Amino acid sequence: MEIVVAGRHTEVLPKYRAFVEQKLAKVEQLAPRAQRIDVLVSHEVNPRQADSSERVELTVIDKGPVIRAEACADDRYAALDLALAKLLERLRRTRDRRKDHRNHTPLTPVDVRPPEPEPPAAEDAPQGDGSVTEHMLGDSPVLIREKLHEAQPMTIDDALYEMELVGHDFFLFVDAETAQPSVAYRRRGWSYGVIKLDTPVAVPAVAR
């Protein structure tokens, strides 16, 4: 399993890289098929955010769903511990779900992270799925960042499940029953909502 460590607005020293590799050895026990783990370490220079100045994002690239976790702290070692605890819990949920759905064809999630104000340089950022393009909106200073992903249709239940795995508040997918582009989103508590477009698209049948 490959571990790719990158820094944004900060330098990642060899000592910390070795610490990350040691900690992430636990991941392989829960995700033996994982191909790669992307680790992004970033630093917030705003002194008002000193308590959360260090952020660590973990992304597990597997043959199944993409699983993410992130955490902030005043120390990057503590941030890694917090993010890893979230990641291991999500990996356990994935393992348990696979046990209950051994005959279910895994679906590919759509990772729709909000655009970042300052995208890292290509050589510094971990590489994920999907192509990314950027362009200006007409003559305005507004920068549009677009991501294109390949995805199979899925049920609302699968969409909510995979939204939880990547830790997002919303999730873009194609409904397997209606063939409509849809967005699942988190409401207060354990309440969720789904918005669908009234223009169905042609999609292949989902294997049952």
Note down, in words, how this protein is organized.
The chain is of the alpha+beta class. It folds into two domains: 2-100, 2-Layer Sandwich (Double Stranded RNA Binding Domain); 131-196, SHC Adaptor Protein (2-Layer Sandwich). The chain contains four helices and nine strands; from the N terminus they run βααβββαββαβββ. A four-stranded mixed sheet has the order 1-2-3-4. It has a three-stranded antiparallel sheet with strand order 7-8-9, covered by helices on one side. It has a two-stranded antiparallel ribbon with strand order 5-6. A hairpin with a 5-residue loop joins strand 8 and strand 9 (192-196). Helix 1 (14-23) packs parallel to helix 3 (76-100).
Secondary structure elements and pairings:
Blueprint: E1 2-8, H1 14-23, H2 27-30, E2 36-43, E3 54-61, E4 67-73, H3 76-100, E5 131-136, E6 143-148, H4 156-166, E7 170-174, E8 181-186, E9 192-196
Parallel strand pairs: 1-2
Antiparallel strand pairs: 2-3, 3-4, 5-6, 7-8, 8-9
Structural class, from helix and strand content? alpha+beta
The number of distinct helices, counting runs of at least 4 residues, comes to 4
Give the overall average pLDDT. 78
Global Rg: 18 Å
CATH class descriptor name of the largest domain: Alpha Beta
Q: Quick one: overall form? A: globular
Strand residue percentage: 25-35%
Helix content: 10-25%
Helix-strand pattern, N to C? EHHEEEHEEHEEE
**CATH-level-2 architecture of the largest domain:** 2-Layer Sandwich
Number of structural units classed as domains:
2
Regions with pLDDT < 50 over 5+ consecutive residues?
110-129
Number of strands: 9
CATH superfamily of the largest domain: Ribosome hibernation promotion factor-like
In whole angstroms, how far apart are the ends? Answer: 31 Å
CATH domain topology of the largest domain: Double Stranded RNA Binding Domain
Largest sheet: 4 strands, mixed
Order of strands, widest sheet: 1-2-3-4
